[in-house]
Amino acid sequence: MAPRQAKGGKTAKKLAADSLRDSIFRGEFKPGTPLIQEQIANRLGVSLTPVREAFTQLESEGLLVIYPNRGTMVTPLSSEEALETFELRLFIESSALQLSIPVLTEEDLDTARGFLEGSSEAVEDGVHNGLAFHYALCAPCNRAQTLRILRMLHTTSERYLRWFFSMDPQRYRESTIHEHQAILSFCEQKNVDEALKVLKMHLQITFTSLSEYFSKGHLSSFNRPPITFPSS
């Protein structure tokens, strides 16, 4: 996590939040890792205030757990959270896509095509671009609250998908990209029913695959051992 300076209109808080989020996604800070504000501030070359604000931002995204007056740690991964996340995505994303497809413009589709092309890159960037592909197709639904919740669900999904596909990158290339291509094709045809059918199948297959890895105990080996903060 390289130190950054506020530039290009970005605030120190945003730079700190973006850098921390990226480090969590890339596994530099594993689930369960305690984070010390002073250490993070030194690494980023910023004061404590933007780091404190970044911690609060990432807590709202579900990436950090803050224990007042005790400490902060990266939120552990759990099969329960993954199940809830994909169940919610199945409902919310399907609803958003259903509203979006009739009003998708060629510009919207071009944006999605760009992310789809990017999803064929290395797993880390591919997962991020794959979720951006999903969001690009849903964004024209023009439902602010729906899209806000969907962004949060995608943030949570990204942690699990990066972890899963880093262990099985071939599965990502063989199945996920193909399913994305099918979703895009039906969106281009304005075929709502078939697009929704493939989306639901895609999300269900992904969660089933994750569940298989959970049942084999792979997740517990990825999380750090639980930590206990001293009582305040």
From TrEMBL:
Q: Which GO terms describe its molecular function?
A: DNA binding; DNA-binding transcription factor activity
CDD domains named in the record = WHTH_GntR
The signal peptide annotation in the UniProt record is none
Q: Name one Pfam family in it.
A: GntR
Keywords tagged on the record: DNA-binding, Transcription, Transcription regulation
**Matching PROSITE patterns, A to Z?**
HTH_GNTR
What is the top-level taxon of the source organism? Bacteria
Residues in HTH gntR-type domain copies = 10-77
Keyword DNA-binding included in the entry's annotation: yes
Name the UniProt record assigns to this protein? GntR family transcriptional regulator
